[in-house]
Design brief:
This protein is α+β, with helices and mostly antiparallel strands and 490 residues long. It has 3 domains: 1-38, no CATH class; 42-378, no CATH class; 381-487, Sandwich (Immunoglobulin-like), CATH 2.60.40. The chain is built from 17 helices and 18 strands. The longest helix is centred in the middle third of the chain and has 26 residues, at 164-189. The protein starts with a strand and ends with a strand. Residues 1-21 have low confidence and may be disordered.
């Protein structure tokens, strides 16, 4: 949006003020304030180098996991499946229920502290190598380059008018983007609906409304974010770009430009013509670092929140330095203190072990240890004891006191078991029925029981007892819960 600023003498919006002495050619000059700058199309140049190879390795590994996990079988079922309908989360040999939400909370805490730690050590390394936005943008750009050509060819293609060549290239590109986005949506939904059942349903047009919605939604989001919006997501939509500076300090590894070495920058031909005694910087102002940047920034202007830390500019600058026979590292991973004070590599590494890093590492280590140990000792059996409120403690034959309970039992194991029920806390407690209960794999069962105490056992009123379950075929699988046994007054 452009807004014209009203000048003195202007009566109302849209009316031109009278001519003034400052007018040129009889026309009044206006100052224009742009409330929103139009987006400039970015055409990242393809670059080869060690960081580009590392980035593509991350792309390959993350997508191998994302697309491959739904197709792995485990115990005759999908290995990773979040079955919302039956409220069961399958993670290989682990079956989680809604009662296991604490592990999800612990996993989120681990992810959060990992992000804090990685950012404090190496800046936006997550954004540059493993963020889904970065990963899919790289894939979509690779498709674009294969169909439309290199950076110069893509720029020429966009500038020229519509022709058969432009039409088929653009159509092929968007069809390829759409196919990849659709398969991404199908793979995403495949984590919630068994993917081997999902594909036949798609083929027979028998897809459910929610499955259809989420395939379309996730596919459209992938197509729009990676194909069209690209750097706009990193610049304006991602909140991480805004609060990342709170995790940085002057000893955090970031992409830096060595201005002391690079300035004054000038083309190599001009530097060769300089008078003897004058010194030009190593930067030849080739702008390769800008051309390869996926967000279109100039790293030579200093640290910017739009920098995602992908190190494409490092690869580009190193390749230029190799060609002009200058040392690598004009643009490199370093710290602000290291660039200003000329720290060696060993000094940079030593200063990485500062209090913030040690605290993050200690907290993360403790949380991971607690998380792993709790999963290791987790009992695949859950028990909830519910008193039958319609039947309080009562006296039956021979003065025996009886209380009625309902047991909600969940066998979270993928094997069936026979469980024996017992009660303790008062001498002589018995449970009816006394026979073990049979439970299939991952089954939930409501079991009514009667707990009886002999005449004279316990105190009048409330007595604390425990009701326990133990697997007959695996005695280590056992669990118990507190309950209240009521003894009525005579």
């Amino acid at each position: 949006m452009d807004k014209a600023v009203t000048k003195p003498g202007q009566d109302k919006e849209g009316d031109l003020p009278p001519q003034s002495a400052d007018s040129k050619d009889g026309k009044e000059e206006y100052a224009v304030i742009r409330m929103y700058a139009a987006r400039e199309q970015i055409y990242p140049r393809e670059i080869q180098g060690r960081f580009a190879s590392l980035r593509w390795l991350c792309v390959f590994l993350t997508q191998l996991v994302f697309y491959g996990l739904p197709w792995i079988n485990w115990n005759e079922r999908q290995a990773v499946l979040f079955d919302l309908a039956s409220r069961k989360f399958y993670l290989f040999g682990l079956v989680l229920w809604p009662q296991d939400f604490i592990w999800l909370a612990a996993l989120l805490i681990i992810c959060a502290f990992s992000l804090f730690l990685f950012t404090a050590v190496a800046g936006r390394v997550w954004c540059g190598y493993a963020c889904p936005q970065t990963v899919y943008t790289e894939i979509f750009l690779w498709i674009e380059r294969r169909i439309e050509g290199n950076r110069s060819a893509r720029m020429r293609l966009d500038r020229q008018g519509w022709s058969f060549d432009k039409l088929w290239r653009k159509s092929a590109k968007h069809l390829a983007w759409g196919a990849l986005a659709l398969w991404t949506g199908i793979s995403f939904v495949g984590y919630f609906s068994p993917i081997r059942d999902l594909l036949p349903e798609i083929g027979s047009l028998a897809l459910g409304p929610w499955e259809m919605f989420w395939i379309g939604f996730y596919g459209f989001a992938t197509y729009g974010n990676a194909g069209w919006m690209r750097e706009q997501v990193c610049k304006y939509m991602c909140p991480y770009a805004r609060f990342q500076s709170a995790m940085f300090d002057r000893d955090s590894l970031i992409i830096t430009y060595d201005a002391a070495r690079g300035e004054p920058r000038m083309p190599a031909a001009r530097a060769a013509k300089m008078e003897t005694g004058s010194k030009a910087g190593d930067c030849i102002d080739c702008t390769m670092c800008v051309q390869v940047c996926p967000t279109g920034i100039d790293i030579r202007q200093g640290l910017q929140y739009m920098c995602i830390g992908c190190a494409a500019c490092v690869d580009a600058c190193d390749s230029v330095m190799d060609k002009i026979k200058r040392p690598r590292g004009l643009i490199r991973y370093s710290t602000e203190n290291a660039v200003e004070q000329g720290f060696s590599t060993s000094e940079i590494r030593r200063r990485l072990l500062r209090p913030r890093i040690l605290i993050y590492t200690a907290i993360l280590g403790v949380v991971i240890a607690v998380f792993a140990s709790s999963l290791w000792i987790r009992t695949p059996l859950k028990l909830d004891v519910i008193r039958d409120r319609g039947s309080m403690g009562r006296e039956v034959e021979d003065g025996i006191i009886e209380n009625v309970y309902r047991l909600q039992v969940i066998n979270t194991d993928e094997r069936g078991h026979r469980y024996r029920i017992s009660a303790s806390g008062i001498d002589g407690l018995t449970v009816d029925p006394a026979e073990p209960i049979e439970m299939a794999a991952t089954q939930t069962l409501m079991v009514p029981i009667r707990v009886r105490a002999p005449h004279g056992a316990g105190e009048v009123g409330s007595n604390k007892i425990r009701i326990a379950l133990q697997a007959e075929d695996q005695p280590s699988v056992q669990v118990s819960e507190k309950a209240v046994f009521l003894v009525p007054r005579r």
